[in-house]
Specification:
Elements lengths: L4 E7 L5 H11 L4 E3 L2 H5 L4 H4 L9 E8 L2 E8 L1 H19 L3 E6 L4 H10 L4 E8 L2 H11 L6 H9 L7 E4 L5 H13 L6 H8 L4
Parallel strand pairs: 1-5, 1-6, 2-5, 6-7
Antiparallel strand pairs: 3-4
Helix pairs in contact: 1-8, 4-5
Length: 206
Amino acid sequence: MDEPTVVIINGGSSAGKTSLCKAFQNSAPQPYFLLGIDLFWFSMPPAEIDLQSVSDLYYRWTEEEENGKSYFRIIPERLLNELMLARYKAMTAFLDRGLNVIADEVFWSKEWLLESLKVLAPYRTYYVGVFCDDVEISRREVERGDRYCGWARGSQIYAHRHAQYDLSIDTTTKTPDQCGRLLQDYLISNASPQAAANMRAQMTMT
């Protein structure tokens, strides 16, 4: 693949996305630069990352329930939306310089997904879904100790709500290195990305 490539790794918090990305970076035959969601999330003022002090200008959050299981939901407001939508323009700056990009993602809103489809349309873009069993992802969340209880479950619900994928990877029983190799083997096969075109055809692009 000579043209610059962007790989969007979408899934819930604690599903293993960032670990997968880093394992892939270490083994990929070409350099890839990680522009993950956390890089931008933690660019916000610290008070806006803290759930107890965040302003409604950034986001709101709620606790909801589905099938008897509680989960956490982020509701993006203006400043978080602008920050997250700007990420895709940042990716194009790398791509325009001939640099490959891999980005772990949580599509908390359909608007974020639509913007990625629009901004990244001129580029070779793969959408990869990362999934994890609910019991395991909840265990990882507790083990990490830096996530609000239910964040993993909620983010997994919303991340996959509208997205389609060129490749899906279940991390429940796989190591990051195994997941990275699955992604590497898929890209080396020169499979043509289809998910973005399928989503653009099915969704209203404005």
